[in-house]
Amino acid sequence: MTGRDLLLVEDEDNLRTMLEAALRHSGFDVRPAATGREALAEVAEAEPDLIVLDVMLPDLDGFAVCQRLRSDGVRTPVLFLTARDSTEDKVRGLTLGGDDYLVKPFSLEELVARIEAILRRTDGEARSDARISCADLVMDDDAHLVTRGDVEVGLSPTEYNLLRYLLINQGRVLSKTQILDHVWQYDFGGDGSVVETYIGYLRKKLDRTDPRLIHTVRGVGYVLRLPRS
Ligand code: CA
Hints:
Bound molecules: calcium ion
CATH architecture of the largest domain: 3-Layer(aba) Sandwich
CATH topology of the largest domain: Rossmann fold
CATH superfamily of the largest domain: Response regulator
Strand order of the largest sheet: 2-1-3-4-5
Helix content: 40-55%
Number of helices: 8
Strand content: 15-25%
Largest sheet: 5 strands, parallel
């Protein structure tokens, strides 16, 4: 169980420093983050095995971070840390895709035991649905490969991320703002026209045969799904 990568998200400096040292001492590789946005950036970059996520953070709270990760298709297990101790919060956290919940103050032994239990339970699970598909369009996330029918489609990194976001949310209409926010990340100051441009690229590369999968919903956004008959 050692040598696993943890992302530790905690805004209180003393507690974060102390937990980081203790978790390293228990054999984990630990990356610290102090805010929700930092956490999202770290997950994208470091792909940790588990996230220890404080609920009360200065920007996005832990639940928002978790929700964001799940809607991006990130299945990394999450252990929430919180000072609050209400059933409602617990249920909310678990419903949003958290895997466990620890109320402050807790002992280090308990923290390590919970982390190990989650890792044992979820081992291999995160990799199990690396293939996402809609009709004959298949994305293999492990191989970073996209095929339509039997034909391999070469995509730029941005095209790939856009297609992945559409595929994960297939059947759901996504606004340009949502797409910008998830595919171009939070610091992108551009407008919706870049989304239109890239949707155009995807259509040209992989949606010129029936059934058409990428649909424009006028005034709302885009959706990837089979055409309605
Ligand atoms: Ca906090």
